[in-house]
């Protein structure tokens, strides 16, 4: 693994990225809210045996800049576009976990599907918000009061990190990995997390999912602490024939850390030409 490199976005923000591996299909791994590229600690090196893997820290996260603007999923999609252009990636696959899925959906809304080859979605419903025609939103952030609740919770980032891990994991994860996850979350700033979640939580991606024609893989945990199973399955049914959904039985929101071997093999098999 090389030390972090930086790409500067079109609004002057430096994003830290790493490239793992040297041959095979290109895949960009996109982490979730309050995480970092290090959340793929059990996945990137393994996938890099057969793929060229790009990991990066979203703005406001990890080693990337933390500006006082840009608190929108669409801005994070523009950042992804800047990264793809900087690395001159030709039709990479995109893999998103949680918020990372919404970033992919926003990317497709803004830039289309022509420069992407395949898509992998990990444990994210099409909308976190509960609406009259959508009862399958997030279990924790689904309306104005619950959003205000999480914005308050992140003010004590240390406690939030512990509670978040408890919510997102069912199967045991090694202590050193747990420590890494928490330390990465502590690099974020509470106000930034709150502002970004305010945008993310209220977006409804169902119309975009219906437009996706690329080969897609939808992975979800049957014990997700973040979403009801019906919300997670809806990603596959909205995309339709080009999407395969795979349930990780007994796994939670961070299924790629709970069952990394199965996750890595499932993703690798899908990514290979």
Describe the secondary structure blueprint for this structure.
Layout: E1 5-8, E2 14-20, E3 26-30, H1 44-47, E4 52-56, H2 73-86, E5 93-97, H3 99-111, E6 119-122, H4 144-153, H5 157-168, H6 175-185, H7 190-202, H8 206-209, E7 216-221, H9 229-239, E8 243-248, H10 255-258, H11 260-271
Parallel strand pairs: 3-4, 3-5, 5-6, 6-7, 7-8
Antiparallel strand pairs: 1-2, 2-4
Helix pairs in contact: 2-3, 4-7, 5-6
**Biggest sheet, open or closed, and with what strands and sense?**
8 strands, mixed
Low-confidence stretches: none
Could you tell me how far the N terminus lies from the C terminus, measured between alpha carbons in angstroms? 24 Å
Helix content: 25-40%
The total strand number stands at: 8
Note the total helix count.
Answer: 11
**Radius of gyration, in angstroms, nearest whole number:** 17 Å
Structural class: alpha/beta
Beta percentage is: 15-25%
Give the overall shape: globular
Oligomer: single chain
Q: What is the spatial order of strands in the main beta sheet?
A: 1-2-4-3-5-6-7-8
The averaged pLDDT comes out at: 97
Order of helices and strands: EEEHEHEHEHHHHHEHEHH
